[in-house]
Amino acid sequence: MPQLVRFLIRHAVIGIGVAALFVGTLLLLDVARLGTLVWESPSGFVAVAALTAALGVTFGSVQMGFAVMLLGQEADGPGGGTPRTVLRPVPVRVASRAGRHTPRHDHRFQDMGRPFDWD
């Protein structure tokens, strides 16, 4: 069997195991009285099997997806990808213009009236 197929099957089984643990925890903790409903119903095992199968497909698929997406991370080591350039500020001299010596008024603290007063 090819290595990639074994890899996917292994991670699918891990996801199905997590789903079985999740269903067992739901029943044990009686979340939303699900455990009571299953134990008191004559066909409760069918509900447990259906819930485990549905969550097994979901969790197995999620685990396989995580495993495939993280497959290239191990070979790259820490911090793969394109290196970013480090931006540093550079001082720049600017010559002042001759007519620019009048003081500016600070408009931040003036009373502007009511905002949007268009009357």
Explain the overall architecture.
With 119 residues, the protein is mostly helical. It has a domain at 3-72. It is 53% helix and 0% strand. The chain has four helices and no strands. α1 crosses α3 and α2 crosses α3. The model has no long low-confidence stretch (mean pLDDT 85).
Tag the structure with descriptive keywords.
119 residues, mainly alpha, 0% strand
Task: Summarize the model shown.
By secondary structure, the chain is mainly α.
Using only C-alpha atoms, the radius of gyration works out to 32 Å
Characterize the main sheet: none
Q: Give the SSE order as H and E letters.
A: HHHH
**Coarse shape:** elongated
Q: Quick check: average pLDDT?
A: 85
Show unreliable segments: none
Outline the secondary-structure elements.
Layout: H1 3-28, H2 34-40, H3 44-69, H4 73-76
Helix pairs in contact: 1-3, 2-3
Biased composition (Basic residues): 98-107
Transmembrane segments: 12-32, 44-71
Keywords: Membrane, Transmembrane, Transmembrane helix
